[in-house]
Specification:
Oligomer: single chain
Helix content: 10-25%
Strand order of the largest sheet: 4-1-3-2-8-5-7-6
Radius of gyration: 16 Å
Largest sheet: 8 strands, antiparallel
Distance between the termini: 26 Å
Number of strands: 8
CATH architecture: 2-Layer Sandwich
């Protein structure tokens, strides 16, 4: 099994309880009570009702070595005992975004929007992992799944992070975004 592939399954089972499910842009996801994160793509037994989003971990993009080193110096890993709150933020960007070259996207992502530098301000309180959906198929409903974990006392910090990112030039290219909040 490819340990880089994961399925986020919303339904009646899972270790995370869904406490909020809102559409920021575009079509909303169906309501579900719980979320399970499963390695691989074989999700049929878990999908009695609900939805599934698939993603794969990949190489980091739009980041320089210095930026990556600065992030690694302060970020914490997932699964911390105190991090009982989480958010799944699936995003799909517009065709205009994907028509840009890699260097044009990098310029918008970091040089204009400051995506990495914004994120670094909220570390180590908020941990995150990015999953790429577009690498699997152009039929996936989202391009990215971003998973965040944080302690309850850092929810305000996480909300400020999202507000800062959503106010950037980069977010003008987001055509679909959901905000799913969870508790363990």
């Amino acid at each position: 099994m490819d340990t880089r592939m994961f399925s986020f399954v919303g339904g009646d089972t899972g270790c995370w309880r869904i406490i909020g499910n809102s559409s920021i842009a575009g079509e909303p996801l169906a309501d579900a009570a719980r979320l399970d994160i499963l390695p691989g793509m074989d999700i049929k037994p878990h999908l009695a009702k609900g939805w599934a989003l698939r993603g794969i971990t990949s190489n980091e993009r739009y980041v320089t070595r210095a930026e990556k080193d600065a992030l690694l110096a302060v970020q914490q890993g997932l699964g911390r005992q105190e991090a009982t709150c989480a958010a799944l933020i699936p995003i799909r960007k517009s065709a205009a975004w994907w028509a840009l070259t890699q260097d044009e996207r990098r310029r918008i992502f970091e040089e204009q929007s400051g995506h990495n530098s914004i994120g670094r301000q909220y570390l180590p309180a908020v941990a995150r992992k990015l999953y790429h959906c577009r690498d699997l198929s152009d039929k996936e409903p989202f391009d990215f799944l971003t998973w965040f974990e944080f302690a309850p006392e850092h929810e305000g910090t996480f909300n400020r992070l999202l507000s800062a990112l959503r106010a950037t030039e980069e977010w003008r290219y987001v055509e679909r975004e959901a905000d799913i909040r969870l508790q363990r």
